[in-house]
Write a structure and sequence with these properties.
The complex is a heterodimer of chains A (314) and B (444). By secondary structure, chain A is α/β, with parallel strands linked by helices. Chain A folds into 2 domains: 3-221, Rossmann fold (3-Layer(aba) Sandwich), CATH 3.40.50; 225-290, Alpha-Beta Plaits (2-Layer Sandwich). Chain A has helices spanning 43-50, 91-101, 106-119, 135-147, 165-180, 192-198, 216-223, 239-243, 271-278, 294-313; strands spanning 3-13, 18-28, 32-36, 58-63, 66-67, 76-79, 153-157, 184-188, 201-206, 209-215, 227-233, 247-255, 258-265, 284-290. Chain A has a 6-stranded mixed β-sheet with strand order 6-7-8-3-9-10, with helices on both faces. In chain A, α2 packs across α3 and α2 runs parallel beside α4 (135-147). Chain B folds into 2 domains: 2-40 and 172-442, no CATH class; 48-150, Periplasmic binding protein-like II (D-Maltodextrin-Binding Protein, domain 2, 3-Layer(aba) Sandwich). In chain B, the strands form 2 sheets. Chain B has a 4-stranded mixed β-sheet, with helices on one face. In chain B, strands 5-6 form a two-stranded antiparallel sheet. The relative contact order of chain B is 0.10. Residues 259-290 of chain B have low confidence and may be disordered.
Chain lengths: 314, 444
């Protein structure tokens, strides 16, 4: 796997507390990397370190397998959580200014901005002041200035806040489009549904430590409890007795002549065995593995580490 | 470097294009030109000759009123009631009525006029009456007015500085005071106006939350420097336009309203005279014959001031003073979320500046004293205080020491400000204390 960005053992100490404690992440090229964690976990600090707004106390950063250098900020686009624009400046003028700060020439900036403004249907706003725009409009402008210099690495911190559902979808499509065009994206949010939808990999940070990392599929597999949901025609017998000790029936509901059951398979038992046991006694309508949602994983992982840490803290 | 240029340009252009800037820039010179033109008008009006009729019932004073350039007197041999009737006709501007009194010393002369009489006219009448009454009183007590006049003496004091080389140099204390105070006040106002603008700019970037977007593209220090330089250029632009516009308005006015060129020249001369009077030369009350001489004296004293040194050091202290203070103002801005938060930090920074301005009015009387020396080398007070001292002539040691400390002060202030700034701009919703600031400074 080809890594675009790598952070090794990043530690950052602030006057009062440790914001990051030996955190390492690897972000592979052309993927969407979800950076998750409760409030105050250290995500923003890590993002600021990647953007070279802050310098780490210790640890190494690599961009394209080379040490991160000041000029790399031209290859990074950052949409911070706390964001805004100069209220009194005109939209177009401001977008050109910010694009120039990211290294574009004035002509290039104007050309590219025109294309984006058209795409987002905000061309008429070019000569308006930012303060005349609605919040959603401002967010669109903000998104455009983040991606205008076509950076290799994009960092979105809560990109969907302030958007209506239609614009959220527009933005999701744009983010996925950027990925197909070759961009690598770090995505930080508390909206777990969008993480499921977009992310290839995630890292979970809690209390300044990384507690979980990997591909979303792998993590889900690690956290799954081997539980399956089965729907079949009514069964006259008690399936608990039929299935025996290898399986545990968690839920068993009979509705309208159907049976819905959740069954956990004991470790080491093949799931096909469950089907083998069921086929003789009923007609199977559906058979699904229940995978934990990212939301569930988030909560259980955070709670687990908090519990572990508690005795140490006291 | 290229980014700093972009930042300077933005800071500059957005402000220069603002309505408030344009209005202020145009109104300023109109105001200045207005004042100058009004002065000119007053001078013109004084050129008009006014006829004053005198009804002197005492018979002692009528012939003492001598015609001047502006006022002609005519003795009227009628009683006051009929004299009042002529007022307005026959071109009489006013009627002076001196009633008959027992002691021949009228305390209650009356000027009748159809408008509020001009202060020049009433002043002249009052002076003449006073002089005559004094003469009468002197005579009554047996003192010859001529003797008294011979005792009165006018003294012109020139100061001559003798340098170590033995070279003698004439100087004028008054002119030095004016030049010193003027440059000090100018620096004071510029620092105050544009230093606080820097602070507001920083707060604006914080409250609009654009700061994090910007510093993901540029270093906080670049943003800080760009803002400071950009605003200095805004200020310089404004002052340059003020000077050029005021000058042009006055010139155009004089050409189009002052009639032919000869008139213009004479009015120019009057204005020069006026401004010389403003400069506070000792010869304000000199008779007109001495005017030319006194003008030459003033020009001599202007020549005696080393303008090369003054202009160079003015530029130096002006720029370095602004840089030190605006860096500190920026630090305050970064530690505050809204402008009202700045109060607690602003005072300790503006105090030395205000103090240096106030104390200047005292220091100017003793520009070589201990207090003046120490205040003129301390970087927070030296921009104003040194400018007060320089026109009087400052030892090169003091000047260079002050400049060196100024450079050190600037480096120190920027270092301090940059440390506070880069932490402060990312802090929200926290009431910042001095303890907190100290932490930011020590923190790497």
């Amino acid at each position: 796997m080809n890594a675009l960005f790598e952070a090794q053992n990043i530690t950052k100490q602030f006057a009062g507390h440790k914001a990051l404690d030996s955190v390492s992440i690897i972000i592979s090229k052309q993927s969407i990397f979800g950076l998750l964690g409760p409030n105050g976990a250290g995500k923003t600090t890590l993002i600021r370190i990647i953007n070279q707004i802050l310098a780490p106390d210790s640890g190494n950063l690599f961009f394209n397998n080379q040490k991160l250098k000041p000029d790399d900020i031209y290859k990074i686009g950052y949409l911070p959580e706390e964001r805004g624009l100069y209220k009194k400046m005109k939209v177009g003028e401001q977008a050109v200014y910010l694009a120039q700060l990211k290294g574009l020439t004035k002509q290039d900036a104007i050309k590219k901005l025109r294309i984006w403004f058209e795409k987002f249907e905000i061309q008429p706003w070019w000569n308006k002041r930012i303060e005349e725009l609605s919040k959603g409009m401002q967010q669109k402008v903000q998104f455009i200035v983040t991606v205008i210099h076509e950076p290799e690495l994009l960092i979105f911190d809560e990109p969907f806040s302030g958007f209506d559902p239609i614009n959220v979808n527009l933005l999701k499509d744009e983010i996925l489009d950027l990925k197909t065009k070759g961009a690598t994206i770090i995505f930080s949010t508390h909206n777990m549904a969008s993480v499921e939808e977009l992310c290839d990999q995630i890292a979970l940070i809690n209390k300044s430590k990384k507690i979980l990392e990997g591909k979303v599929v792998d993590i889900k597999n690690n956290y799954k409890s081997n539980t399956f949901e089965i729907t079949c025609d009514e069964v006259k017998k008690d399936i608990g007795q039929v299935l025996g000790k290898k399986f545990e029936v968690i839920e068993n509901i009979q509705v309208d002549g159907y049976l819905k059951a959740k069954i956990r398979i004991r470790k080491g038992v093949d799931q096909n065995k469950l089907l083998e046991e069921l086929i003789p006694i009923c007609t199977i309508r559906s058979f699904n593995e229940i995978l934990p949602s990212v939301n569930d994983i988030f909560i259980s992982a955070v709670n687990e580490t908090n519990k572990k840490n508690q005795p140490a803290n006291e | 470097m290229n980014k700093i240029r972009l930042i300077i340009l933005r800071e500059y252009l957005t402000r220069v294009k603002k309505k408030s800037f344009i209005i202020m820039t145009i109104l300023g010179p109109l105001l200045i030109a207005g004042i100058i033109i009004i002065r000119f008008y007053i001078a013109q009006m004084e050129g008009e000759t006014r006829l004053v009729g005198i009804v002197d019932e005492s018979g002692l004073y009528a012939d003492k009123f001598q015609n001047t350039d502006n006022i002609n007197f005519r003795i009227l041999n009628v009683d006051i009631e009929s004299a009042k009737k002529i007022l307005g006709n026959e071109g009489f501007y006013a009627i002076l009525h001196i009633p008959k009194t027992e002691l021949s010393m009228p305390q209650s002369a009356v000027v009748y006029s159809d408008k509020q009489p001009n202060i020049v006219v009433t002043g002249y009448i009052r002076n003449t009456l006073r002089k005559e009454i004094e003469n009468l009183k002197l005579q009554a007590s047996g003192i010859d007015p001529d003797v008294l006049a011979s005792i009165k003496t006018s003294v012109n004091l020139f100061t001559v500085k003798i340098k170590e080389s033995g070279e003698e140099k004439e100087g004028s204390t008054e002119l030095s005071m004016i030049v010193g105070l003027f440059s000090g006040i100018f620096i004071y106002f510029f620092i105050f106006m544009y230093g606080t603008q820097v602070m507001r700019g920083v707060i604006e970037e914080k409250t609009s939350r654009i700061i994090e977007v910007i510093i993901s593209s540029v270093k906080p220090f670049q943003l800080l420097i760009g803002k400071i330089i950009g605003l200095a250029m805004v200020g310089l632009t404004q002052f340059a336009i003020w000077i050029i516009l005021s000058f042009s308005i006055v010139t155009i006015f004089l050409y189009s309203f002052a009639g032919d060129i000869e008139d213009y020249n004479s009015s120019q001369f009057k204005i020069q005279n006026k401004s010389i009077e403003m400069l506070g030369t000792p010869e304000i009350n000199a008779p007109s014959a001495d005017v030319n001489e006194s003008v030459i004296a003033v020009y001599d004293s202007i020549k005696s001031i080393n303008f090369g040194v003054i202009i160079m050091s003015f530029l130096f202290f002006f720029i370095s003073g602004y840089l030190i203070y605006s860096a500190l103002f920026a630090a305050i801005g970064s530690a505050s979320d809204v402008e009202t938060d700045t109060q607690q930090f602003i005072l300790p920074i503006t105090l030395p500046l205000i103090f240096s301005m106030v104390i200047s009015f005292f220091l100017i009387e003793n520009p070589d004293g201990q207090a003046a020396f120490w205040l003129s080398i301390f970087p927070l007070t030296s921009p104003v205080v040194m400018m007060i001292r320089i026109p009087f002539g400052v030892p090169y040691f003091d000047l260079y020491l002050s400049m060196a400390l100024m450079v050190l002060g600037f480096l120190g202030a920027t270092w301090l400000a940059a440390k506070i700034y880069r932490t402060g701009i990312l802090m929200y919703g926290k009431k910042i204390t001095y303890k907190e600031l100290w932490k930011w400074i020590r923190y790497n």
